[in-house]
Amino acid sequence: MSKRWIVILLFVSLAFNLAVLGVFLYTSFFGRMPFCPADSRPARELAEHRFSREDRDKARPEFTLANRDEIKQLRSEFMQKRREFIKALSKENINEQEVLAAMQTSLAAQEKLESKIGTSMLELRKKMTPEQAKDYFQKILERKRDHRPDYDRSKSIDKEKTQQGENQ
Q: Which residue has the higher pLDDT, 25 or 32?
């Protein structure tokens, strides 16, 4: 290999190494990637959501959902019914009655799951003060926003502020 090519490869390698180092230093000082939107939340702010559910429950045992095992079972049943529905849709020759029946069982399982979650959350809310409830449920909303890549946070915040202004 000629000396010229070795020098070119050395400079290309040096450029990539500097780029990686620059991104690392930028995220270390500013807490976010350099190409993220300005209104995105820094990684440090999201760190509180990285704990496992068990860790959060141990920290605040009074705010854990009752019937967690039953909810897990209902969620498992719902996911199974949902898979059966999707399998019925994926067959080469679909039977419309079979697909509709699978859809109805999936919807019934989802309704049971949502009902149990709702009643458990209501019981949990009864144990909280208004400030605790606002903080706890606001964190749940924020966590849900973070998991939806198509969710435009700035629009939803503006919409919430508008609705709060109308309610007052």
A: 25
